[in-house]
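Just scan my protein:

——
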Amino acid sequence: MTTSARAEILLQQLLTNYPESDKIGDTAYQLGDLYESKAYKQYRRAAYYYERSFQWNPTTQLDARMKAARLYDHQLVDRKRAAELYQEVIPARHGPEAPSGSGEAHQGAGWGALTPHEPEV
């Protein structure tokens, strides 16, 4: 078993076993990085986890919105979704008085509250 495969299993177990943890946003971000890596190149799955990262932790300092937007823009050629996420980056970087976008709907949501479901590979 490769190191990447082992990391994937452990990160998925964290999400499954601790859905109410305050660390699931960080875990989702790490999964996004893993799926975006050269070892996986699973860009749809990576974008999915980057989005979950900022939905589960709307105040994250991680660049999950930008990474998801870039994947939609350059790899997945979904310009509409990319534009939506790029628009969210500006308010997210300028403080809480600006609307935070789709993250509000999922704030505090556990693992079972996700929509849409993880993409098929």
Q: What stands out?
A: The helical segments are 3-17, 24-36, 43-56, 64-75, 79-93, 103-106. The chain has six helices and no strands. Confidence is low (pLDDT under 50) at residues 98-116.
